Amino acid sequence: MTARAALAVVALAVVPLAAQPPAPDQLLYARLESYLEALRQQAGIPGLSAAIVGESDIVWERGLGRQNAEQSLAALPDTPYHLDGLGQTLTAAIVLRCADQGKLSLDEPVSTFDADAPEPGATIRQLLAHTSPGPAFESFVYRPERLAPLRSVVRQCTGDSFRENLSGLFDQLAMIDSVPGADAPTLVPPAEGVPTPETAIRYNAILQRLATPYLVPQPGQATATLHSATTLTASSGVVSTVRDFAKFDLALKQGLLLSPEMLATAWTPPADGGPVGLPHGLGWFVTTHGGQLVVWQFGVSESSSSFVISLPAKRLTMILLANSDGLVKPFVMSTGVVTASPFARVFLGLLAP
Length: 353
Fold this sequence. Notes:
Oligomer: single chain
Largest sheet: 7 strands, antiparallel
Mean pLDDT: 92
Helix content: 25-40%
CATH superfamily: DD-peptidase/beta-lactamase superfamily
Strand content: 15-25%
CATH topology: Beta-lactamase
């Protein structure tokens, strides 16, 4: 065969491959990546990890920007971050599983489990929904610190500490890159939830890979700092990755943690919120967009932020973790208006048009 003939054969072999159009999903997620990268830069977020979770697996994932700008380390899907307030969804799942098993009633006052609770008359349901009794209807104020008594609820329900339950959840779901509090590796008796030496070594290794937190007063002015969360609470302190949090999302979708009936209860706002309604279910914000149910939650500190948003009917979830507050702080999220977030608008515009 001549050289010219050989080149002709190669060309015939290559042209059909090059001429094939990208799959629709590839185009969709390429657009999503482009929009997320633009928003990351506009918000001045040094590093952002993202994943889209389908019914049975992660269907798309990316790391954008830098988990450590000084060392030029790229953000990756397995980069650990602080979940901040997003951790309350894990707490909710543990408490709701107790209710699912008939071990407690959501309408019991927390004083039944914690005699020193700041709001002894508040029920478990009210704490999870961030609601309080009003003159005529329930009122909503988003205060994640109110969830603190739920640690005692978990203790009485399961017989183990909150940290031990969370560690057990990570083991159950093979969330191998998650840590139940940054202080977990250094715990010693009589503290609860002391890890085995092997687990402490693993926790330390995860924390060594933790995305560097940044203070970003303005885009382009990032300064490395320390995380404000140093221990585990019922609403913050968990360290995890988008890949690990995807396993939690999949467990919810597949009924491994909660019955469909209990999950539906969690994802339904209280009915006694008056004509305006209430924006929060049990552990998650709940709203509608274009007639579709939207379930979401966020977390934020001065140097990290997180956001998860799901379309239950489409079995699709987006998870975003960042090493600055730029995912959340610039936007008014605590009132329950999900479209206040441009990240949410991108997700809904592409996947729930």
